[in-house]
Amino acid sequence: MKTQILVIEDVPEMSQLICLYMSNAGYETTACEKAEEAIAKMQEGYIPDLVLLDLNLPGMSGFDFLKKFRSEYKPTIPVMIVSARDADDDIIEGLGLGADEFVTKPFSPKVLVAKVQARLARLSATEASVEETIKFGPYTLFCNSCVLKRGAEKIALSTKEYEVLEYLARNSEKPITPEQIYNAVWKTQFGDMTAVGVYIQRLRKKIEDDPSMPKHIVTMFGMGYKFNA
């Protein structure tokens, strides 16, 4: 899953420019012209990894959105204000309400991308320092938040995919039988053991360069699976 950038900007040309540069940098963007539209998307389950927020919006202001966002959603999600308002009072209020950075218009799109990349990199480093992680190859498993990342990019995993992967990673370098995996993840000794093989195949498609010749989740014939960190 690509890193999700939420762009709240009511000028279509500016919104399209920001989204173009973010997309070229490898991010997936969602653009909203109104703060209310962004809130509706989040209420439906969309949660961004970073927000680029204008202040002069029709309806709910950027300040009001920021106040609501910080009170109701994950407080660590970075919010960068991108606005033509450059008065000291506006900058102080924005930062006081929880914005991580204040970028004034006009701006260089390349510099904005660099600021976004730096902010996300610092967030990843902070997350890694405050919770248990397991690293293998280019991947990091964040055990507290149940997230798998390749660099800054999230890899979409279902609950069971994550649980199988974490169990294997915690028991690396030794063969684990399908029965052991099933008992640990499904919490029962009775059921369809073929489910383990199905989830192993799904994981290989997501983390292996060549799923037909896996390097991380290796089949040990007659013994089970071995996870190579």
The radius of gyration computed from the alpha-carbon positions, rounded to a whole number of angstroms, is 21 Å
Approximate shape = elongated
Mean pLDDT: 91
- Taking the alpha carbons of the first and last residues, their distance comes to 22 Å
Work out the strand percent: 15-25%
Architecture (CATH level 2) name of the largest domain: 3-Layer(aba) Sandwich
- Which fold name is given in CATH as the topology of the largest domain? Rossmann fold
With helices defined by DSSP (H or I, 4 residues minimum), what is the helix count? 8
Number of domains: 2
Count the E strands: 11
The computed structural class is: alpha/beta
- Fourth-level CATH superfamily of the largest domain: Response regulator
Helix content: 40-55%
Spatial order of the strands forming the largest sheet: 2-1-3-4-5
Largest β-sheet summary: 5 strands, parallel
- Spans where pLDDT lies below 50 across 5 or more residues: none
By CATH reckoning, the class of the largest domain would read Alpha Beta
Q: What string gives the helices and strands in order?
A: EHEHEHEHEHEEEEHHHEE
